[in-house]
């Protein structure tokens, strides 16, 4: 019986997702049971192709399942303005020889969780697939030991609107279902990937000095994202939110400070669509708030990560790319 931790990865595979996949697929700590793909950064067929390219690069036989082509209710809004049209910086990567599984990702999520009690889930894109799986099989939430969600902007600005982070904004209804489901969510927000956590020129040089196909791909496929990050924030470097979430999944101690809070997702206002409203001061049960937060008060709190071990994150990335 393997002592490895079993993991399911849901992704909208673009350039930062691909680096996160490499980290998991090349880790001796985890046994990745499935990679399920949803539309987000790019349309689902492109995201699936990118996931297959990455598994082939790693020589991995982890099955890849195509999932949702659009959010639960809304039209799809992609982020090719950030990651490039193909999601990998438009460098013309040849399609993988690996093939996608026939089973739909939503079915694969339910089956894989049921077959692997205690499994850890990490989501790197919109929560459409996971929400649909929960609607189909609500009981699966009891078989999940951790659900690390790359998403949200806890008490801070978003990256796609002033209020919201992309993964939650694309499908806020799905996020609402997942956040109220009772899953043990650990929220790794976009804010953790900025500033010193971004990959700077010295980090790039050290990564390229590894002289491996993984390091070369990780840098090159994020060329569009690096430019877009600078235009978006004025910050230099490569912003890698999904790999940071993966680092926290692999090494939970890299989250130096976290706390549990009720979190609600805005699904009606267009101004604050997809906002992750974190009850950081614990005022949700107050009389003036109770009617708004009643459904959340009955649900499990979310563990929000507030501070990252930046040096530890970058060391984990370097190890994965060796
Ligand atoms: O907001 C960052 C998130 O949105 C990352 O997962 C990135 O890949 C995009 O999906
Ligand atoms: Ca992603």
Structural descriptors:
13 helices, binds calcium ion, 8-stranded mixed β-sheet, alpha/beta, binds alpha-D-ribofuranose, two-stranded antiparallel ribbon, Inosine-uridine Nucleoside N-ribohydrolase, Chain A
What does this structure look like?
54% of the residues are buried. Helix content is 38%, strand content 17%. The protein has one domain: Ribonucleoside hydrolase-like (Inosine-uridine Nucleoside N-ribohydrolase, Chain A, Alpha-Beta Complex), CATH 3.90.245.10. The strands form 2 sheets. An 8-stranded mixed beta sheet has the order 3-2-1-4-5-6-10-7, sandwiched between helices. The chain is built from 13 helices and 10 strands. Helix 5 packs across helix 7 (172-179). The protein is of the alpha/beta class and 322 residues long. Alpha-D-ribofuranose is lined by residues 12, 14, 16-17, 40-41, 79, 124-125, 150, 159, 165-167, 190, 241-242.
Indicate the topology.
Elements: E1 5-11, H1 15-25, E2 30-37, H2 44-57, E3 64-66, H3 80-83, H4 105-115, E4 119-123, H5 128-136, E5 144-150, H6 166-170, H7 172-179, E6 185-188, H8 201-209, H9 213-220, H10 223-233, H11 241-250, E7 255-261, E8 263-265, E9 276-278, H12 287-297, E10 302-308, H13 310-321
Parallel strand pairs: 1-2, 1-4, 2-3, 4-5, 5-6, 6-10
Antiparallel strand pairs: 7-10, 8-9
Helix pairs in contact: 1-2, 1-11, 4-5, 5-7
This protein binds alpha-D-ribofuranose (RIB) and calcium ion.
The site of calcium ion has 8 residues, from loops.
């Amino acid at each position: 019986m393997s002592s490895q931790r079993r993991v399911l990865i849901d992704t909208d595979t673009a350039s930062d997702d691909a680096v996160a996949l490499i980290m998991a697929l090349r880790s001796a700590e985890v046994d990745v049971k499935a990679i399920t793909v949803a539309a987000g950064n790019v349309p689902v067929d492109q995201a699936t192709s990118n996931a297959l390219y990455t598994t082939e690069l790693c020589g991995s036989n982890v099955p890849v399942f195509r999932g949702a082509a659009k959010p639960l209710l809304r039209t799809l809004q992609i982020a090719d303005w950030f990651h490039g049209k193909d999601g990998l910086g438009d460098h013309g990567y040849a399609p993988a020889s690996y093939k996608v599984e026939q089973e739909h990702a939503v079915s694969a999520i339910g089956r894989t969780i049921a077959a692997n009690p205690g499994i850890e889930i990490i989501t790197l894109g919109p929560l459409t697939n996971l929400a649909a799986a929960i609607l189909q099989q609500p009981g699966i939430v009891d078989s999940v030991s951790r659900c690390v969600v790359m998403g949200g902007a806890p008490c801070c600005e978003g990256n796609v609107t002033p209020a919201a982070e992309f993964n939650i904004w694309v499908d806020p209804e799905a996020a609402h279902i997942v956040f109220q489901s009772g899953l043990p969510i650990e929220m790794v927000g976009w804010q953790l990937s900025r500033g010193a956590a971004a990959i700077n020129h010295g980090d790039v040089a050290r990564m390229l000095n590894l002289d491996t196909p993984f390091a070369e791909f990780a840098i090159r496929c994020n060329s569009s994202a690096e430019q877009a990050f600078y235009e978006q924030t004025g910050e230099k470097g490569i912003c890698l939110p999904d790999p940071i979430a993966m680092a926290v999944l692999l090494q939970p101690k890299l989250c130096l400070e976290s706390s549990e809070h009720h979190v609600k997702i805005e699904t009606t206002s267009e101004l604050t669509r997809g906002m992750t409203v974190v009850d950081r001061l614990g005022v949700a049960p107050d009389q003036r708030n109770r009617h708004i937060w009643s459904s959340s008060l009955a649900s499990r709190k979310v563990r929000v990560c507030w501070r990252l071990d930046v040096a530890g994150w970058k060391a984990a990335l370097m190890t994965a790319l060796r």
